[in-house]
Design brief:
The chain is α/β, with parallel strands linked by helices. The chain has helices at about 35-50, 65-75, 120-125, 130-135, 210-215, 225-240, 270-275; strands spanning about 10-15, 15-20, 50-55, 60, 85-90, 90-95, 100, 105-110, 115, 125-130, 145-150, 185-190, 245-250, 255-260, 290-295, 295-300. The protein has seven helices and 16 strands. Strands 2, 3, 4, 5, 11, 12 and 13 form a seven-stranded mixed sheet that branches. Strand 6 (about 90-95) and strand 7 (about 100) form a beta hairpin. Helix 1 runs parallel beside helix 5.
């Protein structure tokens, strides 16, 4: 086996940073039993794998203003060549070929009280997932990963269940549409296929089905992320008798991108993990995260700065 010294020519620095959001409580639509559990468990797992968690922990039950502020703060914290991960558990829906992540205050205040959102109101009362992805892409990261466990049925006000821009009668309450990125080096994982819905788990479990298997497989050390997501897909399909099929869009260009090299970074303090927070302050002293390429395998190390 080659020594670290012999691999010095292939060493690159990539800081691993993640934003994790979970929303269980909704004003209008059905609450989701496991979304907050999913986010908390994902945050803990990613931290153990060497990711800096934006704000130090999962962000829970955010209003639209809080969601937008958190997203903008996260974008400002990014640096060129970062390894960026975004995880969301909660309600999501599509409208006119755009995906929207729904905040906890999913209503519009009118003279006669709170009203559920129409499709056209999503632009101002929800987070456009594609726009968020594009803004991350503008920071020139090394890698972008989106994990969207939000393909539950979401009901828009009937007034906006009308013809889409393509002229076809469309029901916009089920699932998400596909997404794309401007540049290579991105991976988007949906809990289920376009236009379908995902299971939020059952009363006996603490996690939604998609997240349950992300938690099982993502910590596998020294394994390619595409392979891990195929294992997630297989487990979800087996569990649902193929009713739910996770959908992945991968335009990664490097061989064997691994999120975890098996070495837990116990030296990382909670102060370092929370150093990139909503006030956009960063620590001046922290460990570098290194990826080594050996025999075609890229290993992402600790949470370098």
């Amino acid at each position: 086996m080659a020594s670290i010294e012999n691999l010095s020519s292939s060493v690159n620095i990539h800081r691993k940073i993640a934003l994790v959001i979970g929303i269980s409580k909704y004003e209008i639509n059905n609450s989701l039993a496991n979304a907050v559990n999913d986010a908390n468990d994902m945050s803990k797992m990613l931290k153990s794998m060497g990711f800096i968690i934006h704000g130090g922990e999962a962000k829970l039950n955010l209003t639209c203003d809080e969601f937008e502020s958190t997203v903008n703060s996260f974008i400002r914290s990014l640096r060129k060549d970062d390894m960026v991960l975004f995880y969301f558990a909660g309600h999501g829906t599509q409208w006119e070929d755009q995906n929207y992540l729904i905040p906890s205050d999913d209503f519009k205040e009118e003279y006669d009280g709170k009203k559920g959102l129409t499709g056209s109101e999503l632009r101002n009362y929800a987070i456009n997932a594609q726009h968020f992805l594009n803004k991350i892409d503008d920071q020139n990261p090394y890698l972008i990963m989106f994990f969207l466990d939000c393909c539950r049925t979401y009901h828009l006000r009937n007034a906006d269940l009308q013809k889409s821009t393509r002229g076809n009668s469309t029901n916009h309450t089920r699932g998400l549409s596909s997404m794309s990125t401007k540049n290579a080096g991105s991976l988007i994982a949906f809990a289920c296929g376009p236009g379908t819905t995902a299971e939020d788990g059952n009363n006996r479990e603490n996690n939604g089905l998609f997240t349950k298997y992300l938690l099982k497989h993502l910590p596998t050390p020294n394994e390619d992320i595409d392979i891990l997501l195929r294992r997630v897909r297989k487990d979800v399909m087996t569990n649902t008798n193929k009713d739910q099929i996770p959908h992945v869009i991968s335009i990664l260009t490097d061989d064997h991108i691994c999120l975890f090299n098996g070495k837990k970074d116990s030296s990382v303090s909670s102060k370092q993990h929370s150093s990139i927070s909503t006030n956009n302050k960063t620590s001046t002293k922290s460990k570098r995260e290194t990826k080594f390429q050996q025999n075609g395998t890229i290993l992402a190390g600790g949470n370098g700065v």
